[in-house]
């Protein structure tokens, strides 16, 4: 990809995909094992790659520019729009809840005393919600800076962790946790909401497919390496947010740096999603401004205060739900866009039609597996 816009588009997609989910990868690898995680990464990686590519083709086949909600309404009708709207609101609230939980964990690494993780999460929520109330016009430059900083810190953690890997810490396969990775890995791979944006960035629209493929390959490789190295160092002491278990091994200085960048990434993501949900309620559904803010910020807080504070459980549930609803809708929209699209796309996927029905079935079985695992 020599075209500069292709590099920028790939960086944007990678930055969108890599989020809170990355911190849960080492934990599930330590519990379920390397082989089960590899299986899920391969299967879900291929499925999510197809969904991103199919969404890209949908965008290229349509004259008007929409988000997934708009494409669902155009090709499937108003009922599909309502379903996707519900999924978007639910998924955003779930992600905000995950950021509240994760933010408290990162603050605990930085400030081990005198506050509890619960108190630190509440403090972070108060600060971030205040900025959502004020409204943030754009923090894109901050996001770019933090993504670069995050990758640098992760490289340093890789560098210092690699000599401390103990082969005895690796678990090949643990059947007791066979269903654990599904929702977390699915949550960590989803980034199709960025596809319409990166299509606009590209000067050569035909490069969209290459950008999606290269970005997904990078993300899957990065995730697997991250999980492998961290779990190889901390073994069964691997924590849900990955970093806490490294403290006794790598020392406070390097982990405080990791905690800081993790905190900044979580904070910017909270601000972006919080403002996105608030503005969607204001402009798309005509909610009063304060009520929109209240629903956007207090809904995840209410869930947090009711005792839903397990980071892994939250992202697994959100990933499973969003994958099932939005993945299925993308398949249906793609099927109709092939027939009703208004322009000839720069690329056209050649896949058997049965795949459009097989993917929703996989998501249904995946959802059932999560229900069995988490509620048994």
Strand content of the residues, in percent? under 5%
Radius of gyration computed on alpha carbons: 20 Å
The number of strands is 0
Number of domains: 1
Distance between the termini: 48 Å
* Classification by helices and strands: mainly alpha
- Uncertain stretches: none
- What is the count of helical runs? 15
Q: Residue share in helices? A: over 70%
Q: What does the average pLDDT come to?
A: 90
**Shape call:** globular
* Oligomerization status of the protein chains: single chain
Order of helices and strands: HHHHHHHHHHHHHHH
Question: Quick one: biggest sheet?
Answer: none
Layout of helices and strands, plus pairs?
Elements: H1 4-17, H2 25-32, H3 34-61, H4 68-76, H5 78-110, H6 117-134, H7 140-161, H8 181-189, H9 195-201, H10 208-234, H11 247-250, H12 252-284, H13 289-305, H14 311-340, H15 354-375
Give a written overview of the molecule:
- The protein is mainly alpha-helical and 376 residues long.
- The protein has one domain.
- Helices cover 75% and strands 0% of the residues.
- The chain contains 15 helices and no strands.
- Helix 3 (34-61) packs parallel to helix 8.
- The chain is globular and about 60 Å long.
- It starts with a helix and ends with a helix.
- 47% of the residues are buried.
- The model has no long low-confidence stretch (mean pLDDT 90).
Q: Could you list some keywords that capture this structure?
A:
376 residues, 75% helix, single chain, mainly alpha
């Amino acid at each position: 990809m020599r075209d500069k816009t292709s590099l920028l588009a790939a960086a944007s997609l990678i930055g969108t995909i890599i989020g809170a989910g990355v911190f849960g990868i080492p934990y599930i690898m330590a519990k379920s094992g390397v082989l089960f995680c590899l299986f899920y990464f391969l299967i879900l990686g291929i499925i999510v790659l197809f969904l991103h590519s199919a969404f890209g083709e949908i965008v290229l086949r349509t004259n008007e520019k929409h988000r997934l909600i708009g494409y669902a309404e155009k090709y499937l009708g108003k009922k599909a729009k309502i379903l996707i709207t519900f999924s978007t609101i639910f998924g955003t609230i779930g992600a905000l809840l995950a950021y509240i939980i994760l933010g408290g964990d990162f603050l605990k690494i930085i400030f081990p005393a005198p506050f509890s993780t619960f108190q630190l999460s509440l403090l972070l929520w108060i600060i971030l919600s205040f900025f959502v109330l004020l409204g943030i016009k754009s923090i894109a430059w901050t996001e770019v800076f933090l993504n670069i900083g995050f990758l640098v810190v992760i490289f340093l953690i890789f560098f210092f962790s690699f000599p401390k890997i103990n082969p005895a810490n690796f678990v090949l396969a643990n059947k007791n946790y066979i269903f654990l990775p599904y929702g977390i890995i699915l949550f960590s791979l989803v980034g199709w909401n960025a596809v319409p944006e990166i299509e606009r960035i590209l000067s050569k629209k035909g490069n969209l497919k290459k950008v999606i493929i290269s970005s997904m390959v990078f993300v899957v490789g990065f995730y697997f390496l991250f999980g492998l190295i961290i779990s190889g160092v901390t073994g069964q002491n691997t924590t849900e947010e990955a970093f806490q278990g490294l403290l006794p091994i790598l020392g406070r200085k390097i982990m405080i740096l990791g905690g800081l960048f993790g905190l900044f990434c979580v904070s910017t993501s909270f601000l972006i999603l919080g403002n996105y949900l608030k503005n969607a309620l204001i402009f798309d559904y005509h909610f009063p401004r304060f009520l929109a803010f209240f629903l956007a910020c207090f809904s995840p807080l209410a869930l947090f205060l009711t005792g839903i504070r397990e980071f892994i459980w939250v992202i697994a549930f959100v990933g499973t739900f969003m994958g099932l609803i939005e993945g299925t809708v993308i398949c249906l929209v793609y099927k109709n866009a092939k027939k009703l699209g208004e322009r000839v796309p720069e690329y056209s996927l050649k896949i058997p039609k049965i795949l459009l029905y097989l993917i929703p079935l996989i998501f249904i079985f995946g959802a059932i597996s999560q229900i069995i695992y988490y509620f048994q």
